[in-house]
Design a protein that fits this description.
The protein is an alpha/beta fold and 357 residues long. Helices cover 50% and strands 20% of the residues. It is elongated, with a radius of gyration of 26 Å.
Length: 357
């Protein structure tokens, strides 16, 4: 407020300070006396704590949740609140505040979903989590959907130590129970057991393996001196106009590189069925489906907020953090520029499944 007053006086000269007033403000931790600076004209109205506001509870809690969603540690949040409000908060108090978002999370986890999603992307992030006194590796599987309006929505966050067909069956069954009847295309990074599970729950769904992940994984077998040429040759495969042309390009790729880099070529051959799904779709739609870029951009925002976390104290803490980051990130999402054209094409090719009016 002192800083706000300095800025206010610069804009309202010859106005000047006129001592201080005091009021008690209610917080989650009891009443706190606040000295409020005054000016001669009485025109200063603090933004951080408006004149007639007598409670700091919701404002303070929202501030703490916002800082937490940016990846700040409890120590950093405590320091920030001390500097802003001259209040001392313990880790237990901060945990109590962030725990208040849990009923909202429970409601979000069980909310109804749309009947059909043209595109769904799935990816995983890995974290260290404390369990039973030990640090264990845990995967957070994120399911991002795009509805018929071209709007993105994080459909769910699922935590698991293992990945299997039974795990994916439980994830897909959860989506189904919340109202999802059909998914046109699921774009994934070669998730173990996913194909078997989706054939059970959503048998009409096409599964597309992410081309970008395929390139990254294949390049692990290629030394630097060959990397540029190999990447250029890979492009002839997935940039082909038809499946037949793509298969011809793959054969030429195999003839050229199979002796020198057999593991790299084998990875393309073994995954070809899943990699080539996008050839069944219009070129305008391929751009959306053959990569998990949509969810990778989201993941970058999450990594930015979680990169300072060595480990999380519990699964619950990890879920809270991922949820709060996702809520903040979702505000920046926008519809693809080409969506009108994309949905028009899908209406012609998959109109019955989309049930567009």
């Amino acid at each position: 407020m002192e800083g706000e007053m300095d800025a206010h006086l610069k804009e309202s000269r010859p106005n000047r300070r006129n001592g201080k007033g005091q009021k008690k403000v209610k917080t989650s931790f009891g009443d706190v006396p606040i000295d409020t600076p005054r000016d001669r004209e009485g025109s200063y109205d603090p933004e951080i704590l408006p004149k007639r506001q007598r409670s700091l509870g919701p404002a303070l809690e929202n501030k703490i949740l916002s800082l937490y969603s940016m990846g700040m540690s409890y120590r950093d949040i405590t320091s920030h609140i001390k500097e802003m409000y001259d209040m001392e908060l313990s880790a237990a108090q901060l945990t109590a505040i962030t725990d208040r978002v849990w009923p909202e999370i429970e409601e979000w986890r069980s909310r109804p979903l749309d009947r059909v999603y043209p595109f769904v992307w799935l990816d995983a992030l890995f974290y260290k989590v404390k369990q039973d006194g030990q640090i264990k590796s845990m995967a957070a599987y994120l399911v991002l959907g795009m509805n018929v309006e071209g709007e993105k929505d994080l459909l769910g966050i699922y935590l698991s130590e293992t990945e299997s067909a039974s795990f994916w069956l439980s994830v897909l069954s959860d989506l189904q129970a919340r109202g999802v009847e059909d998914i046109l295309v699921a774009s994934i990074d070669n998730l173990k057991g996913f194909k078997e599970a989706i054939e059970t729950v959503f048998p009409k769904t096409d599964v597309q393996l992410c081309i970008v992940h395929q390139i990254r994984n294949a390049m692990r077998y290629v030394p630097y001196q060959d990397s540029r040429e190999v990447v250029r040759d890979m492009k002839t495969i997935y940039k082909a106009n038809t499946l037949e042309q793509g298969e011809s390009a793959l054969e030429a790729f195999e003839s050229k590189w199979s002796k020198k880099h057999p593991a790299m070529v084998r990875s393309w051959k073994n995954n070809w069925e899943g990699l080539s799904t996008f050839f069944n779709y219009h070129p305008e739609i391929r751009k959306i489906m053959y990569t998990t870029n949509s969810i990778e951009g989201f993941n970058r925002q999450i990594r930015k907020a979680t990169k300072t976390k060595g480990s999380l104290p519990s699964e619950r803490a990890l879920y809270k953090l991922l949820y709060l980051v996702s809520v903040r990130t979702a505000k920046k999402w926008s519809r693809p520029r080409s969506w009108t054209k994309v949905i028009s094409i899908l209406a012609m090719t998959h109109g019955e499944r989309l049930a567009l009016e």
